[in-house]
Amino acid sequence: MTTASAPARGAPFDRTLLLVVPAAAFMLLLFVYPFLYGLVLSFNPKEGGWLANYRFFFTTDNEWPTIWTTLRLALPATLINVGLALPIAYRMRVKTRYQRWVTTLLVVPITLGTVLIAEGMLTYFGPKGWLSHFLQLLHLYSGPIRLTHNYWGVLISLIVSGFPFAFLLILSYVTGIDPVLARAAATLGAGPAAQFRSIYLPLLAPGLAMCFCLAFVQAFSVFPSAVLLGSPAGPTRVISIAAYEAAFEQYDYALASAIAMVMGLVQLSIVAAVLGLRNVFYRGPVSGGKG
Amino acid sequence: MKHDFDELKLDRVTRRFAASGGKAFNALDALTLTVRRGEFICLLGPSGCGKSTALNCIAGLMGLSGGSIWLDAQRIDTLPPEKRGFGMVFQNYALFPHMSVAKNIAFGLKMRGISAADRAPRVAHALKLVQLTGQEHKLPGQLSGGQQQRVAIARAIVIEPPLILMDEPLSNLDAKLRVETRAEIRRIHRELDRATVYVTHDQDEALSLADRIVVMKDGVVQQIGTPTEVYAQPANLHVARFMGYRNVLELDVVREDGDRVEVRGQDVALTGVRRQPLAGARAMVAIRPEEITVGEGPGGLNTLAGRVSNVEYCGRDALLEVITPSGTLLQVRGPVGIARDDTVRVYVPVERALVYPAA
Fold it and tell me: Which of A55, A202, B50, B227 sits in a 20 to 30 Å window from A162, CA-based?
């Protein structure tokens, strides 16, 4: 199995490379093939030229705006999740008696499915829900509270389900940074704020970018909560709903594939932009020498 | 933050930790010490003796459970580390991995609000002092261990701290580099004339660097003295053992005459110098292998006979194990040329056999 790019002529084939075969086969069968199938399908519309599906998506009034609708949900949700998780994870970096309890509490929502969260939120945040009752009881707010079946319901559910994910990821990055670095900074005159700004933040930046990407991709593909907690016909008609309707209401798999491709492209461009930005920062070991 | 001081005073500094069983123990027990301006102090002891705890308490990285720390008339143990302004060198260097060598060194100056234009010459001077000129744009990861340690030293001294703290700075270096860097630290200390508190478990390091050595064990100070005092006159058996008195014999006390003590075993009779008041009929005699000579003492005094049971060749000399007929084992530094199973007589000078009470 020698090729032109083999490192050295006659070098023995490294048989441990064979260990990659199952994973490669798995990827090929379950990801690459379906993806390429969908890609080809998207260029074979029911009628019209090979770009007809894309032309339809980008010219129809309730199709192309779904990109913005989804971005309007996914970007703020991701920013809030990462922005909230960072200070809490930073606070949790030192072992305290409460650390384990707080971590457990914050992570519980990850074990609940989106549907379960949606059900719970409908009862809690709904117009006759506990929150509404509670606020009215305390005379804090008397008007009707509308936090379900609209933009806010979906956003809140994205935060509830996405936060533990971002928190756990950032917590692992934060605890990976050698606390001796902050102590060294302290002996050099850096107060707590300066320690965070000049030591933790730059070392966390690549991890935060990665966390942002993963959380964003998760949020961008929102579907159940957009249906259950939003108003899927209007303000929370996200791109995955558009694809779902094309596939399972109009049975136009080609159009659905095209929408899925657009969805993938948007995710990819945001991820590429963030990861490109990541290269600006230092990437390397986060310890201060021999340990 | 002061740039210099006359005295750093540690007054009964105590630090308690909760053990895993929930029982608290004193990692550092009432350490009282005065560091004078420009002095080089070594905290010496085996791991777990509280020496690093003491250093962290001085630096402010660890709170005190009792006692106080004074910089002249100012009480500093209540200040956070960033307000104390001491330079600290960490065991694993703790260089900021995302900053260049120059930025690492400039960090403390930047935190003090010194402008970039004023920082540059001081960073250049510090680099020159640790002989790293030309490496300023590298990242710490691109340097060798010895270079990283010198960056750490430069970073600590560039802020011109009144006190420099070093926590086993050489323990991650190989033997040759350790000796070189040790000389470097001594030279830098002479040039800067700043008080330094240096933590180590290595007697050689402490003896070669320190003006005064603080020997510690289980959080308690055993002896404070100059290297000569600690080396030649250990205050107790722990210090003696730690300072290389490898022969420790438990013998019967025969007679005390002033500070001279006669002790005796089955086939061992020695006269030594008492270092602590004796209690009881038994005593411990501590002798260094290099202070025993092969041969007969004056008039046969303090002379033992035995068989050589092991020889370790060391180049200039050899380390012999001499075993007396009754089984007392002595380590002796002797001349090259003595073979295993030879019968030898060895002599211990009276003033070099130190007598301590039996535990």
Answer: A202
